[in-house]
Design a protein that fits this description.
Layout lengths: L14 H10 L11 H16 L4 H26 L9 H10 L7 H17 L4 H7 L3 H25 L2
């Protein structure tokens, strides 16, 4: 978990910034003191279950829109927290879980498998996730490292669904 410099003074927030921080912290999950990224991913599960009820085209569109909103919110929250990938920012985990589970059939085993796969890949950061993590220190980098890791997860989920129907 990355932290702000010791001398960082958190700025006063206007309403738009408060909404961005609330969204970026996964509706509060990012304030969990232990494993906030895992807490953010847990928050993604019921959101995914609702998303999975939509037509396929709307699932894709909503996921892309969520990623764009997460980038914006993470960027604004990064200024507030003093670090672009502060541990409180977990909207990237939600976006990553959405990508991992995009168009995956809903079952208990797929929800759990997707959760485990995404959390492992988010920690391992296979390329290009590692590149975003090292080189892009903005809301874009914060979210896209998880989305890139999740793309690997989505591929593995496709294989898993095929091999383990």
């Amino acid at each position: 978990m990355k932290k702000a410099p010791e001398n960082h003074q958190r700025p006063k927030l206007d309403l738009a910034d408060k909404i961005s921080v609330f969204f970026a912290t996964g509706f509060g999950a990012g304030w969990v003191p232990v494993a906030p990224g895992t807490a953010g991913t847990v928050v993604a599960i019921p959101l995914f279950l609702a998303l999975a009820q939509l037509p396929y085209w709307l699932q894709i569109l909503t996921t892309v829109a969520y990623i764009a909103l997460a980038i914006h919110a993470a960027d604004r929250a990064g200024h507030y927290f003093g670090a672009s990938d502060d541990g409180h920012i977990v909207s990237d985990e939600i976006a990553g879980y959405f990508v991992t589970m995009l168009l995956v059939p809903v079952s208990l085993k797929t929800v759990i498998a997707g959760f485990v796969l995404f959390r492992v890949l988010d920690q391992v950061k296979p390329w290009p996730a590692s590149w975003f993590d090292r080189k892009v220190h903005t809301g874009l980098g914060n979210v896209m490292d998880d989305v890139a890791a999740a793309a690997w997860g989505r591929g593995l989920m496709a294989l898993l669904v095929w091999l383990w129907p």
